[in-house]
Amino acid sequence: MTSNEIRKRAARRRRYFVLLLLVIIALIFAVTKIVSRAKESVPAMHQGEPNDSLVVIDDSRSTETAEASTDPGVTAAEGETYTPITETGEPGKQVSSHGSLYTVKPHIYVRINHQKKIPLSLAGGITPDEIRWTTNNANIVDVEAGGYVTGLEKGECTVTASYKGEVLSIPVTVRELNVIDGCTFVDDILVANKSYSLPQSYDPGLLPVTEQAFEKLCDDAAAEGLDIHQGSGYRSYDFQVKVYNSMVSGYSKEYADTWSARPGYSEHQTGYTIDCNDIQNEGFADSPAGEWLAEHCHEYGFIIRYPEGKEDITGYNYESWHIRYVGIEHATAIYEQDLTLEEYLDIDSKYADDETDSENEE
Ligand SMILES: [Zn+2]
User: Tens digit of pLDDT for each residue in 121-148?
Assistant: First the structure.
């Protein structure tokens, strides 16, 4: 091949290369144009949504509206003026995207055939009549105007409060109470309080699951230089007879009932309960070990069973040392939502004779 031929061939290759490059650039340009047009049309659809006020909102649409509402430029429906709720002041509580709706109960727990009202705060200018309530599963709950939720069937669903296309979704758990061999279970949790007792024959001892979780808790506390140990653990029915009666004779029945359980009503008989360190040591709450226990026991599946300020709900004085095993998942939900076991399971804790208070205990 002559040098002339080589040059010609090289020139031809360059022309092909340039042509190919031009074709690629044209293709990229065309594709970009198509993609950007497609993108433009999506937000245009969403932007219209929050203003489609007062139309029935089904669930799929609610989700889309909630997403679209994250755009800070979108305000209340046209012509509407109200003062949005700007902050909740309570971590973990829910406020809707534009601050129209707010609830202090981020999760509702209700038993079958029980009714609960979802507490809803409204931005200034909105009336409760303007709120539309819906559920995504009418088999599990019934929801009425005013946010009244009735449990129908065991399960989980979502109840939604909506105002002019703005939504607040609240998860609802419907629980079921069952009595098996004289023991009361709400879902999978064994209950012993002033309303629900255990039979004398129920005598499991401190359960291994409780023992193992408590051992881990103590080890981790010790690693931080804190002493947490078992003061009192399992108490049988017969032992509780002695504990309760000695309190009644030493003080009074009223005093005994706020500090100790009647036989059969003690949570210590469940096998899931431990009193840490020195029982009824009121200084424990403010000690480093007591503070650590309150902050961390849920990580091991325990709850502070009788919290401060909830005496009317649990039926017992605050006991910073009394922990109950419910498993990590339940304990974490109870801790994070600042609940008692009674609120979490939607149960009472009252002796049947509390009103009359006439009988004398043996
Ligand atoms: Zn106790």
Answer: 998 889 999 999 999 999 999 999 999 9
Q: How far is the CA of 187 from the centre of ligand 1 (A)?
A: 23
CB 65, CB 97: distance < 8 Å: no
Tell me the C-alpha distance between 157 and 170, whole Å. Answer: 9
pTM for this entry: 0.73
Q: Is residue 283 part of a domain?
A: yes
> Which one of 175, 209, 243 terminates a domain?
175
Last residue of a domain, one of 146, 175, 204: 175
Report the greatest alpha carbon distance in the chain.
Answer: 124
- Residue 247: both structure tokens together: 């309190």
Identify which of 313, 311, 343, 321 has the alpha carbon closest to the alpha carbon of residue 105: 343
Q: Which residue has the tokens 């061999």?
A: 181
Q: Which residues of the chain have pLDDT under 70?
A: 1-8, 10-11, 16-81, 86-92, 280, 354-362
Distance of CA 337 to the CA centre of its chain: 5
223 in a structural domain: yes
| DSSP codes of every residue in 166-206 | EEEEEEEEEE-EEEETTEEEETTEEE-SSS----TT----S
CB 317 within 8 A of CB 327: no
The alpha carbon of 97 and the centre of ligand 1 are apart by a number of angstroms equal to 43
Instruction: Look up 80 and say whether it is catalytic.
Output: no
| Encoded tokens for 286 | 């403010």
Ligand 1 center from residue 167 Cα (angstroms): 43
Which of 49, 166, 267, 319 is catalytic? The answer is 319
Task: From 270, 359, 287, 283, select the one nearest 323 (Cα to Cα).
Answer: 270
Q: What pLDDT is recorded for position 92?
A: 65
Q: Give the Cα-Cα-Cα angle 295, 299, 302 (nearest 5 degrees).
A: 80
pLDDT of residue 13: 72
Helix (H, G, I), strand (E, B) or coil at 250: helix
Phi, psi of 339 (to 5 degrees): -115, 165
Assess whether 118 and 155 both reside in one domain: yes
